[in-house]
Design brief:
Blueprint lengths: L11 H52 L13 H17 L2 E5 L5 E3 L8 H4 L5 H4 L5 H10 L1 E8 L2 E12 L2 E11 L4 H47 L14 H49 L5 H33 L6 E5 H11 L1 H6 L3 E3 L8 E5 H18 L5 E8 L3 E9 L5 H4 L23 H11 L4 E7 L2 E9 L3
Helix pairs in contact: 1-2, 1-6, 6-7, 7-8, 8-13, 9-11, 11-13
Length: about 500
């Protein structure tokens, strides 16, 4: 039975840490290699120049002392002095300096100084006597007067600098200085210093990389945790915001989204509760009254009265369903507008006439109609009819007995502004900001009529904003409230 392969889950923190650390290490390695190469090159050039200067000096001194016939390993006082010079220079520049004839044989070296054979034997030690300089290097000295090369001497890699010894415009021999090609003291010091500094820098760098990576990944991990909790309906979790960078902006945006989701979930629950109540109450009333009529509990002379109540409850259900359908269409963008130019003042007066009975019943005074002038707007008449009707409906409901409703229409350069103000209990300042939210219902102390589901003002706001206008509420005192909206002027 084959087993399904499970994809290994990556860890973004480890991935980013390894990535940054690798970049850091590669950068240090490249910089270190370049630095060591440059210092080594500088050290070699400086050493080569030093060897060349000293070999030239020795060659000039020998050319003034020896002649062709003396270019051999036999002892002489002059050669002894030259060997002493070779010893001094060798010690000063930390190299092996010796003299060769034109055949490449070493004839003078520093090793025999102080030994008895020095006075009776040759001017070269046994070790140097067995060594012969490479023919290519000798040829380079004979042709160019100098040679700088590298070679293997006694199984060690060495740098060799040679200078020709001239006498009467002819080359009678050459002086060679040999030094090991390993790292110099300067290069070794630079390497040690670089390693010490690199360890400190890498330690600090890895710590900073760890902190930076942790800072980058922590908000993402919190967002992942929050998303999982959001998926099960828990919108209480928030991302901890630190700093003022792009990640902080992302965290703020994520928290704003969480607030919106939390608010939407609360609204949804409130809406479900409100709609359930709004549907249950009239349906219970309708069913009770109809059952009473059918089983004879309600006498015939009372049936018309209760049928009117049933008719009102049915209309109430119809209004609720229509409001929900309109809200759904507007939110989805399927609500079709048919704007045109018309006089909104006539529309306001016509809508007020539909509330005549309720206005007379509460002895409400209507202000502003006698001075109202014609004002033309460019809008959908049916939508604005619903806006004005809803605002007047609220005004009539909440106006106190014997109070007033003031209507004022003014015209600006681009918009027409409509104001509907009513006396009665004002709106609390903390509620003004939420009046036009979906499913929001004003505090029950103001809700003289509790038959709404909190959709009316939300739909009014959507309709006004679809026309490019805006709507807001004011309540400057505890005895009045005012709703104001704007619409574009007629084109």
């Amino acid at each position: 039975m084959s087993k399904s392969k499970k994809k290994t889950r990556g860890n973004i923190f480890i991935t980013y840490f390894i990535l940054f650390a690798s970049i850091f290490l590669v950068t240090f390695a490249v910089l270190g290699t370049s630095l060591i190469f440059m210092v080594n090159s500088y050290s070699i050039n400086a050493k080569t120049e030093l060897l060349q200067e000293n070999t030239e000096s020795i060659a000039e001194n020998i050319s003034q002392t020896l002649i062709v016939n003396n270019m051999n390993a036999d002892y002489s006082q002059e050669k002894a002095m030259i060997c002493e010079s070779l010893a001094v220079v060798s010690n000063c520049i930390d190299s092996d300096v010796y003299v060769c004839d034109n055949a490449g044989n070493i004839i003078l070296c520093k090793e025999q100084i102080g030994n008895k054979p020095f006075y009776t034997g040759y001017m070269v030690c046994e070790e140097h006597s067995q060594f012969k300089m490479d023919d290519k290097i000798i040829q380079s000295v004979l042709e160019n007067g100098t040679a700088i090369s590298s070679a293997i001497i006694n199984n060690e890699s060495c740098y060799i600098v040679g200078t020709a010894i001239k006498a009467h415009d002819s080359i009678i021999g050459s002086v060679f200085a040999v030094v090991e090609s390993g790292t110099t003291d300067l290069v070794e010091s630079v390497i040690k210093m670089f390693i010490f500094v690199a360890i400190i820098c890498l330690s600090v760098g890895f710590l900073m990389i760890w902190l930076l990576t942790k800072k980058m990944v922590t908000p993402l991990q919190q967002m992942s945790t929050a998303a999982k909790r959001f998926a099960v309906g828990d919108f209480s979790y928030r991302v901890n915001i630190q700093g003022n960078d792009e990640l902080a902006d992302l965290g703020i945006a994520f928290n704003d989204m969480a607030d919106a989701l939390d608010k939407l979930e609360s609204s949804r629950r409130s809406f479900v509760a409100n709609v359930s109540h709004e549907l249950k109450t009239p349906m219970t009333s309708i069913a009770g009254f109809i059952d009473g009529i059918l089983d004879g509990t309600i006498p015939k002379d009372k049936q018309d009265y209760y049928l009117k109540i049933v008719s009102g409850e049915v209309r109430r259900l119809s209004r609720l369903v229509v409001a929900m359908l309109n809200m759904s269409k507007m939110e989805s963008g399927d609500f079709e507008m048919k704007p045109k130019n018309y006089n909104i003042s006539d529309q306001i007066i016509h809508i007020l006439l539909t509330f005549e009975q309720n206005i007379d019943k509460k002895h409400i005074e209507i202000r502003g109609l006698d001075s109202m002038q014609p004002h033309r707007v460019h809008a959908d008449t049916d939508m604005i009819y619903q806006v004005v009707y809803n605002l007047f409906d609220n005004a009539v409901k909440f106006t106190n007995e014997g109070g007033y409703i003031a209507v004022n229409v003014t015209e600006g350069t681009e918009f027409v502004q409509v104001s509907i103000k009513n006396s009665g209990e004002g709106i609390k300042s903390q509620e003004l900001a939420h009046l036009f939210e979906r499913f929001y219902k004003v505090d029950k102390s103001r809700s003289l009529d509790a038959s709404g589901a909190g959709l009316g003002l939300y739909i009014v706001k959507m309709m006004v904003e679809m026309h490019g206008g805006r709507i807001w509420a004011k309540s400057d005192s505890q005895s009045e409230a005012e709703f104001i909206f704007t619409l574009p002027r007629a084109k």
